[in-house]
Specification:
It contains three helices and no strands. The two termini are 35 Å apart. The chain is 82% helix and 0% strand. By secondary structure, it is mainly alpha-helical.
Length: 98
């Protein structure tokens, strides 16, 4: 472990020693909440892109592939609902502890 401290201290303008406050339950819960908000935004954005691509494929596909593409669109919608519900559950649990 001393090797890591030496490495940090030897870097020009590096960290001589770690100072500052510790982690409390509130800071950890805030970090988790920030991460879940970020994950929700990214997940919904990617799901929206997948839906747009699915609708484009549905519009240009032939009759034989329409059912497969329609199933893919439905699965994407279920994925969006799953993302929202799971992250909302995490935020609800965090609010109970706050």
């Amino acid at each position: 472990m001393n090797k890591y401290y030496y490495l940090l201290a030897s870097v020009p303008n590096g960290i001589g020693k770690l100072e500052g406050g510790g982690y409390t339950v509130d800071t950890i819960l805030k970090a988790i909440k920030t991460f879940t908000t970020w994950a929700l935004r990214v997940g919904i954005t990617l799901s929206g892109v997948a839906l747009v691509i699915g609708f484009i494929i549905y519009a240009v596909s032939d009759v034989d592939q329409k059912q497969r593409v329609k199933q893919r669109i439905i699965q994407t919608l279920f994925g969006v609902v799953g993302i929202i519900l799971s992250l909302s559950l995490v935020n609800l649990i965090i609010d109970l502890f706050s």
